[in-house]
């Protein structure tokens, strides 16, 4: 268990630091070009996500995300106690990742974001982003487990661009991004709406994913 929690902590630290740190670098270098800054942020996020899942997946399952931990608990593939421990570690280690980014870039260590992200369009984007992420994990893990790192990384890379919210799809990183007034931030007041949408998307994905990935009854010919 100690190794599993350590893997979740390390993964959450580097994933959250990767999202925030690449956002800071992109904003600093792109001279106001938001599209190029988002592209740089996207590439860095997808890259670090692939590495972390490939490296730490065999140890902890590489959740790094409360909706993933909750989804596995609902499917009775992870015990509730373990899921709660994972979520606590994801939040704490992710917050340390944000603090590390602020320290690396000589920013105020303690911050609150002022970037507004709210409205039906943004919430819909988060619900869809989270639905797709959890569905990708559940179905790929059942049908083609060796492709999970690439599938998840590529999904998030795409979802940065096809969703209105730029695909947070993760309650822990949503909370942590509210603690950073940088390119990837979200105002604390807007966090509950995002998390509610993420939970809706996760619940739908658990139902659909279970149906899609279920083994057919003996003799079923499709």
Textual characterization of the structure:
The protein is mainly alpha-helical and 222 residues long. It has one domain (2-212): Glycerol uptake facilitator protein, CATH 1.20.1080.10. 71% of the residues lie in helices and 0% in strands. The chain is built from eight helices and no strands. Helix 3 crosses helix 8 and helix 4 (80-104) packs parallel to helix 7 (171-177). The longest helix has 28 residues, at 2-29. The chain is globular, with a radius of gyration of 17 Å. The mean pLDDT is 95.
Helices and strands in order, then pairings?
Layout: H1 2-29, H2 34-60, H3 66-74, H4 80-104, H5 120-143, H6 148-162, H7 171-177, H8 191-213
Helix pairs in contact: 1-2, 1-4, 2-6, 3-4, 3-8, 4-7, 5-6, 5-8
Notable features of this structure?
mainly alpha; 8 helices; 222 residues; Glycerol uptake facilitator protein
Give the topology string: H per helix, E per strand. Answer: HHHHHHHH
Q: Supply Rg.
A: 17 Å
> How many strands appear in the DSSP assignment?
0
CATH class: Mainly Alpha
Q: Which structural class best describes the helix and strand composition?
A: mainly alpha
Query: What does the average pLDDT come to?
Result: 95
Quaternary arrangement of the chains shown?
single chain
Number of domains: 1
pLDDT < 50 stretches: none
CATH topology: Glycerol uptake facilitator protein
By DSSP (H or I, 4+ residues per run), the number of helices equals 8
Give the N-to-C terminal Cα separation: 41 Å
Based on CA inertia axes, which overall geometry fits?
Answer: globular
Main sheet, how many strands, which sense, barrel?
Answer: none
Under the CATH scheme, the architecture is Up-down Bundle
The share of residues in helices is over 70%
Per CATH, the superfamily is Glycerol uptake facilitator protein
User: What portion of the residues fall into strands of 2 or more residues?
Assistant: under 5%
């Amino acid at each position: 268990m100690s190794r599993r929690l350590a893997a979740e902590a390390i993964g959450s630290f580097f994933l959250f630091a990767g999202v925030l740190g690449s956002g800071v670098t992109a904003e600093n270098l792109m001279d106001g070009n938001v599209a190029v800054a988002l592209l740089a942020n996207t590439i860095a996020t997808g890259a670090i996500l692939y590495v972390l899942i490939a490296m730490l997946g065999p140890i902890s399952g590489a959740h790094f995300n409360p909706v993933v931990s909750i989804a596995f608990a609902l499917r009775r593939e992870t015990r509730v106690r373990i899921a709660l421990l994972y979520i606590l570690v994801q939040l704490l280690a992710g917050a340390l990742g944000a603090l590390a980014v602020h320290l690396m870039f000589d920013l105020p260590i303690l911050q609150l974001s002022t970037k507004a992200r709210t409205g039906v369009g943004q919430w819909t984007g988060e619900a869809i982003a989270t639905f797709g992420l959890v569905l990708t994990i559940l179905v790929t893990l059942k049908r083609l487990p060796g492709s999970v790192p690439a599938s998840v990384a590529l999904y998030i890379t795409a979802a940065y661009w096809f969703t209105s919210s730029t695909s947070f799809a993760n309650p822990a990183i949503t909370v942590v991004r509210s603690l950073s007034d940088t390119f990837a931030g979200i105002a604390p007041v807007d966090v509950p709406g995002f998390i509610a949408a993420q939970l809706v998307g996760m619940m739908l994905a658990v139902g659909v994913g279970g149906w899609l990935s279920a083994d057919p009854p003996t003799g079923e010919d499709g």
